[in-house]
Amino acid sequence: MVRAALKSLLGRKLRLLMSTFAIVLGVAFVAGSLVFSDTLSRSFTALFASTVGDVVVRPVGGQTVDGTPSTRTVPAALLDELRTLPGAARVDGNVNAFGVFVVDKKNKVVGGFGPPAIGANWTTAPAGHGLEGLSITVGHEPHGSDEVVLDARTAAKADYFVGERVHLVTAANRASLTPRLVGIADFEHGGSLNGATLAIFDTATAQRLFLGGKDAFTDVWVTARAGVSQAELRDQVATVLPATVEAVTGDKAADEAASQLLDAISFLTTFLLIFAGIALVVGAFLIVNTFSMLVAQRSRELALLRALGASKRQVTWSVQLEAFVLGAVGSTLGLGLGVLLAMGIRAFFARYGLDLSGQPLIFAPRTVVAAYAVGVLVTMAAAWLPARRTSRIAPVQALRDDVALPESALHRRLLLGAVLTVLGLGLLYLGLFSDAPHGGYLVGGGVLAILLGVSSASPVISQPFLALTRATYGALFGSVGRLAGQNALRNPRRTTATASALMIGLTLACTMAIVGDSAKSSIDKSVADNFIGDFVVSNVFGGPFSPSIANRMAKVDGVERIVRERYAFVKRDGDRQGMAATDPAEIDGLNLRTPTGSTADLRDGTVLLAKKWAADHDLGIGDSVTLQMPTGKQTYGVVGTFEDNPLVFTPILTTLKTLTDAGFPDQDNALVVFARDQVGVQHDLEQVVADLPIVTVKNEAEFAQEQRAPIDQFVKLIYALLGLALVIAVLGIVNTLALSVIERTREVGLLRAIGLSRAQLRWMITLESVVIAVLGALLGVVLGIGFGVALMYALRDQGLEVISVPTSQLAVFLVLALLIGVLAAVFPARRAARLDILRAIATE
């Protein structure tokens, strides 16, 4: 039986390899995601291990929730006391700041998105455990306010050489700097900053730029003497520290930093694995269809095996053995393709600053196990139902000239489909419209259940469409059209199973089209209804910028007033929460609508809350909100609520001084500018930031466009990934038609014998393919509209008030389906037309 199964597999190599391609893509996504994730994890773990000392002394609350330095520092006087400890070999103070961008000679920012732009002071302190840190490989260390050192990758990318002036943009009071490059820093024996940019000054200059001249440090490294462990040194250090400063081992500090960053970007792996799941689900339809047709075509062969003494179980497991081999081959190819995919992902993110080019790919054992487990199990599970159907073959059927494998009753498929659809609707409702935990999983499970339910019931619900198609084809294309329509209708289970693969891809594509179009329409409406002032000034990377910019813009002729806005992340009850701040004297410029309270009541130490957020948390005037700030837990009184506003992105609004008193830097995130003459003033405002490429000046239309841009990029990325699912669906149609031609070889020969030309035969098969593609497209568009509208309705309280169905895009999807149907038929139709008539008629 094993030999028979393997010979059967080798006899149908091309057909089965087409099915394998679906598994290859799915496994490649799984393997590629895991390889990239492991590479990312190892890279950041190694990086942070080389950027901490044996013991790190840091202020309590020295970092904000998003990992940037707060204004809390370690006093310089403490270093002398630390040097007296018996376990300390040396003590070095560090000054670090984020938002120090390097601008190249073409006035373009190096990096920007993703990895941070760091400013620091130069020290020769060794990393923990004696690990190699950065060293000066070209030139010398910086001295004085007019000298800077850059990391090697940044200097090369910006095309700067030692001796040249470097253009830097900071979020500190001095917005623009042009020091001379005096050195290049690098890891001499390999290593990378993973795309971060680093500008290094001497300690006095760094303190003046980033700490306002205060004789202090953002943290301190204490290096252990030989034979002293990190834990022992930490305990010694802790005995001399004040309550506002803490000591942690370098290992702990590195783990915390790496874990925080990896948690923040873990969505990348999840995102890719979701599409791996989509590819595998679509591929499963192709495998089910392929094995169903192969088992049906081999039914006489299998019956003969039964007549020769093979048991039902042996025949069933012979098909499963074929599936196992197919899954193993697909997993092996997918594993290799996954490595290439991981390299592609690495190159893709390098374009956006996350440069891992200096890191080798990590090929962990879990990747191999996951790849083979996924590929083999999905293939065998998909082949199980067709394999089970072989048990219905009786040995006596081997004596018949033709054997038809009995189809499952359509009413049972309809019942199963109805149950799955109802279950899916319930899960979808819970995920979208209730506060049930793990809502995302419920939505995903609901969507999958509905797709499977519609697929199961589609042989019944699609029969009117198939009957209409047969009649329409007959009217338009005569006998060829009637034959094509009858062929599609004669086996609705097979037709709809093939169409279902295309349905899944188009359902998700249509859903994302509606979500994207609705989100952009909601942004346009919100900006049109609530935009205030004449211009908005912001950082193109979403971060802060120098407060000196507002001071300079206020002096521009024609500017009447400027409203500063700042944003920060804090914690409330352990959860991350956004918080905004503005000047109480200028708050009326934001044109906030306050259902309760008044903007005039906002003062230092108080907050205004977004109306819906306040209602969700049962808060109102007179209540208080306790937030975890860099300076510790702080309680603020609620003085009112405000309606949604496109320029206030957070549900909590306070004053500028409240934020700075809580330990946040004196940096702006946005400016609202009011002017007398828009045209003339915009040019003058742009001249203020002409040498600051991270800062832009936008009018209402430009601001709306900037808000829409990320949505467009995200939707395009989704389309690109869903394109792989559509490729699998096209292969499914090709495979089904190719197997159908083989199954109908005698029929094709008879049609040719009675006068059907090659061109008519090709046209007939093309029309069959179009039926499958259009059916899948119609089901996909209908389900996509339903999912998209439901999702946007559930998000209506999140500021996405407009539900927009992009009919032009949906029409493009339908036209694309027609094109898919025509292209998918090329190979099967060509093969059918080349059949020898006499041999085809003689085929059993």
Structure description:
By secondary structure, the protein is of the alpha+beta class. The chain has four domains: 43-264, no CATH class; 409-461; 462-531 and 709-844, no CATH class; 535-698, no CATH class. The chain is 55% helix and 15% strand. The longest helix is centred in the C-terminal third of the chain and has 44 residues, at 700-743. It is elongated, with a radius of gyration of 33 Å. The model is unreliable at 401-407 (pLDDT under 50). Its main location: membrane.
Global shape: elongated
Helix content: 40-55%
Give a count of the beta strands, DSSP E runs of length 2 or more. Answer: 25
Largest sheet: 10 strands, mixed
CA-CA gap between termini? 23 Å
Rg from Cα: 33 Å
Helix count? 25
Number of domains: 4
Provide the low-confidence segments as ranges. Answer: 401-407
Structural class: alpha+beta
Q: Provide mean pLDDT, rounded.
A: 83
The percent range for strand residues is 15-25%
Would you kindly provide a brief summary of this structure?
Belongs to the ABC-4 integral membrane protein family. This protein is an alpha+beta fold and 844 residues long.
Topology summary:
Layout (H helix, E strand, L loop, with lengths): L1 H9 L2 H37 L5 E5 L14 E2 L1 H7 L4 E7 L1 E3 L2 E3 L13 E5 L13 E5 L7 E5 H7 L8 E3 L6 E2 L2 E7 L10 E5 L1 H8 L5 E2 L1 E6 L5 H9 L6 E5 H15 L2 H31 L1 H9 L4 H39 L14 H25 L20 H24 L5 H23 L1 H28 L1 H39 L4 E5 L8 H6 L5 E14 L2 E8 L13 E2 L8 E5 H6 L7 E6 L2 E11 L9 E4 H6 L8 E6 L2 H11 L6 E4 L1 H44 L1 H9 L4 H37 L12 H18 L1 H8 L3 H6 L2
Parallel strand pairs: 6-12, 8-11, 18-23, 20-22
Antiparallel strand pairs: 1-14, 1-15, 2-13, 3-14, 4-6, 5-9, 7-11, 8-12, 9-10, 16-24, 16-25, 17-18, 17-24, 19-22, 20-23, 21-22
Helix pairs in contact: 1-10, 2-7, 2-8, 2-10, 2-11, 2-20, 8-9, 8-11, 8-15, 8-20, 10-11, 12-13, 13-15, 14-22, 15-20, 15-22, 20-24, 22-23, 22-24
InterPro entries: ABC3_permease_C, MacB_PCD, Macrolide_Exporter_MacB
Membrane topology: Multi-pass membrane protein
Subcellular location: Cell membrane
